[in-house]
Give the backbone structure.
Amino acid sequence: MHTRRRLLTAVIAAGFGLALAFTAGTAAAAPKKIVLLVSGTLGDKSFFDSANHGMQLIREKFGDAVRTRVIEMGYDQSKWQPSLEDIAGQDWDLIIVGTYQMPDILAQVAEEYPKRAFLIFDSSMDYTKGANKNVYSIVYKQNEASYLAGVMAEGMVKSGAIPAADGRALGFLGGMDIPVINDFLTGYVGGAQAVDPAARVAVSYIGSFADAAKGKELAMAQYRAGVGIGFNVAGQAGLGQLAAAKEMSRLAIGVDSDQEAIFRTSDPATADKVVTSVLKRVDNSLLRAVELMQQGKLPLGSSEALGLKEGAVGIVKNAVYEKLVPPAVRQSVDTAEADIASGKIVVPTAFGMTTAQLAALRDKVRP
């Protein structure tokens, strides 16, 4: 009788401890099973592939101690919630999703499965009134890395590294007109204006993260209109920008993954046109989150914004960058990078800007 009572007390205490751990915003146990649900498909050579690489880094770091799985849900949004509910009903220790379309779906599923731990990257949850206590959010200071790209691109234009005949304007090709994409834009414009207050940036939105054909069409229109170097922030659709750069012999800036390296073997002519890529290090941030969870320090029930200082964003500085970007421009980029990390430079952000303010920014820099 006493033994049963002690056992019951221990079970109640353990349950209370688990509830307390989630309430306090810290994971209770190290994860042994981790799953990533991709709200699209792999092979975009940018955002989702970076997340997949994060799962590879987790496997490399923890080996057999952690089991991982990656599931592609496709672009049919009607399938996302059933897929997430199905996975949440299984015994995964950490369930990872990403992108701006997922918070509402995740909020419903996380409430249904309060003892599951969830992570969402590139978007944040509503934590008011104690909601989403079992969800950790990662958002990125993509504006910081984009600022460096703006410094580089406008520096190349101003120095003559980009021939005047190719165009004096910068290009920006966004997947959709949404805050996270516009955060790239505001940083990019801020960096360009730091080099030349009169910098011009042509802005187009594809309206999709999958339509590479339309991305190519819009990028080619920008190049024809006098854009010397274009920056794609459009996932798989942004590959159209790289195809246009190759076809028209212009320069491009990749996004999320090192797109020059990705094309180096399969299509070196395209790779040669990718001066750098603005990295949103989804891979590093997922590894960091799992490391924190292994230590019992993952702050469930909260959101973190990660930037240059945390190694969560940056730009690629490879052989093509060294070859095409003049030394003085590279030095300007390095200085800006250090000043952002130290807080000396505060990069403008689209978050908190009104629609009218964004429209005014685009109008101001329009070629």
Summary: The chain has two domains: 24-140+284-306, 143-280+326-365.
